[in-house]
Amino acid sequence: MRLQDQLINLPTLDYLINPSPLMISPDSYLVDAIILMSQKKAQNHSLIDLNRYLQPDIWNQQENSCILVVECGYLLGIITAKDVVNIIASGVDLTQIKVSEVMVTALITLKESYATDIFTAWSLLHHYQISYLPIVDSQGRLKGIVNASVLIQAFNRNTILGIKTALQQLQNNYRQISCISCSIHHRLQQGIKSKSQTFTSTHQEFQQTRKKLQMVEEKLHQTQNELEKLVAENKRLQQKISEYQKAEVAWQNREKLDYEQKEAALQASEAKFQYFAENIQALIWWKDPQTRQFLYINPAYEKIWGRSRQSLQEKPLSWMDAVHPDDRDRVDQMMTQHFAGEATEIEYRILRPDGLMRWVWDRTFTMLDQQGNVCYYAGIVEDITEHKHIEESLRESEARLSVALEAAHMGIWEWKIPTNETLWSANMGSLYGLPSGTLCPTTTEFLELLHPEDRQTFTQAVTATLQQGVKFILEYRTVWPDGSIHWLNSTGQLYYDENNQPSRLTGTTTDISERKQAEQQIQEQAALLDVVTNAIVVRDLQNQILFWNQGAERLYGWPPQEAVNQNANELLFKKPSAKIPIAIEQVMNTGTWQGELHKVTKSGKEIIVESRWTLMQDSAGQPQSILIVDTDITQRKQLEEQFFRTQRLESLGTLAGGIAHDLNNILTPILAASQLLQLKFPQDTERYHQLMTIIENNAKRGADLVKQVLSFARGFKGDRTIISIKHLISEMLLIVKQTFPKSIEFAIAIPENLWAVSGDVTQLHQVLMNLVVNARDALPDGGKIEISAENRLIDQAYAQMNLDAQAGNYIELTIADNGMGMPPEVLNRIFEPFFTTKEIGIGTGLGLSTVLGIIKSHGGFINVSSKVGKGTKFQLFLPAVEGCQRTRSENPAVSLGKGELILVVDDEAKILEIATIVLENYNYQVLTASNGIEAIALYAQYKHQVKAVLMDMIMPEMDGLTAIRTLQKMNPQVKIIACSGFNPHEGLSEVVNANVQLVLPKPFTAQDLLNSLQHILRDEN
Predict the structure, then answer these.
(1) What three-state secondary structure class fits 272?
(2) Domain CBS: where (predicted)?
(3) Is 532-632 in the same CATH topology as 390-515?
């Protein structure tokens, strides 16, 4: 066999590089890497074209026992099967740890430019004792990987044996040639010394030997050529080895630099660990596996155990002395498992020297070297006492919550929206008729538990919560397996994730079947109560209204939604009633109370009710509420008063008849005598005649007064004639100025064109006298009485604001004083017969009732206003006679508006309606508000469009003065007309001080309103 046939033909390294090794990203989880490594064939994640390889099986058949960590084509690390085994042994959760967190194997790579032959790769693998060598380009991008097993395959056994056989053959040939050469030399020496007779034979042998020598020389020459080739090949190999040695020196230098860098990093890491371990609250320790002596204990031991580290160094098992006796067996078992190489985890109690008991969480593990031998025992212990206390509190809270939920028939649930997973408390199933502890069914199964009529409502409510973010609140029915129907109430709150997407819906569900049944029963009972005409009200012990039937709405005016939850005393009484505390005390003591109460309706009308109170008690007999049944007896009381008044009037009529007879008997001689004296002494002086005239006139007036008393008792009848009010006032002034104190001043304002009225002169004279006398009595220290009259046209707008008025022409006669005035409670009763504030014997109480009766009998009406300390004003309105109709055309024409927007504010709906009609008829636009708050809201919305504001001064919620000041803050140039029923003495100075443009007294006519608007809008300058 020729030597050249036995020379080695080794493959290039490029052929042995696996271009598509197993790869994974650093953010992937470790379990994904293990799954890839467990596959039997390499995945085709080629980085280069594989078509140029003729035999890819060489690297495809290698073992998949490593995986490369690659990101964007760059190699970051490598994880081997050995690494995976160590990680699994540490007990971590493979599904939660990422690949980037477990790359522990040192990363050794070979640049593509150095990857010329297999000796380079083999040298690196052998030097670093590794099995895998990644190949990267100059930028560090991964090109492939070389496996040690592939290189071994390249150096197969037959090739190595061939080299050995060739060398042995060369050695044998060399020895054979040497033997032949020695043999020839020996034979030549023997031939020279032999005898001549043997020359011939020797010569023949020589020739033969010579031929053999030639053959040997040829073979030797051939062997020499082969040896030269072998020497040349050996030289080439020596040169290659020299290059490898140079490369190895460079690699050693780089390894030294890497080692120094790693050493520095290790020292920095050790410093960080030292700082971390010395300051962490958890105990960290490790010990020698042979001697089991502690090699390190951090200071946390002293904080947790309350003992010194020195004592633990001296007695390594002294920490066991602190273990609670009840936990010692479990701790002993844990230590046995730990020294057997198992990772352990246990919670137990320790008793400190200061007597405190602490809970600790102890975890132990072993640290192995590269050969898998135990090099250290280690562990971490944490103080979890506070955590245990929290757990205990949580368990107690959960127990209390469970009891409370069961007692309240309530359950808790949570719907995880991304996974469509629903969790609910153990007792939730019982609310749907399922066994307690039943897991939440699927969505379809859950909807089957609901009443068919409520399923769509339920899904719509959930959809609305998800789409609109509203709170989930729904009452619905569920059908139990036994067919019974139960009512449930579910309330839930929607929560969002960091991307503002709905993540979960958490809430509670309560069984409200009993409440629904009670509500149904109450509704049935309430329906029966609503049929009753009486007002039925239930109030709690804090005076809050709980129930209000339709009878109460009909009686008081407030609907249930406005009355319920209101304070009954504040709603139904103008001022605190002295009877209420007495009623409450009696009903609490005896259980019942009955009496008459003066209450007020929504419209402000005062009514009298017969009220019957009954105390309601709960099942334990404790007072719970008061049931009140009110019956309106206002009309009955009025009829009673009218009956009593009629009786008094009848008695008065009888008395007046007798008095009139006696007075007539007295006045008749006086009247006759005065007339006789005038006839008998006609020649006497003028003064005497004047005195006789006064006696005669007063006697006649005395007779007329007797007629007036009879008229009051029998009805106001008399002779009606056309009367000049101006002359009547002048005649009255002749008397009062002579009889009234000089400290009283009179102010008279009567126009020349005052209209006439149709009436009884005696009755109207009596009206004037009564009012003027009352004004005098209100001025004990003197003062001023104003008497004025004017023509008034009452239009439909004014008539609707005053129920006693009718549209038409009137004479307005005003008598006002600046005297003592009257409080509201007196003002409300001045027209009642026999009501008087004067002492007995001074007044009869018939004066003002007579005035009212006379004015009404003449088709007129009276307005009166008064304020204590300011005075009183009476306004008498008497219809004018037909002859004055011609004067209507004398009223100045009112120009039309220009579409200005006017804000009208009044709490009386009729006034708002009339004002709107009047203004719209005269080309104005109108906004209306029923109180100050609503007016402010409207003005804020239409601030730049509103040209003027008509503001009532007395309103609920917010009065006119406050509203005016608020509007002026919003717009100092706002134009305001203040409307009020005040008389000039009732505090309008505050309104004037508020800088309003005009004050329009109530009631007003359409012309008054239009003229006022025209004044502030166009004629204000």
Answers:
(1) helix
(2) 103-161
(3) yes
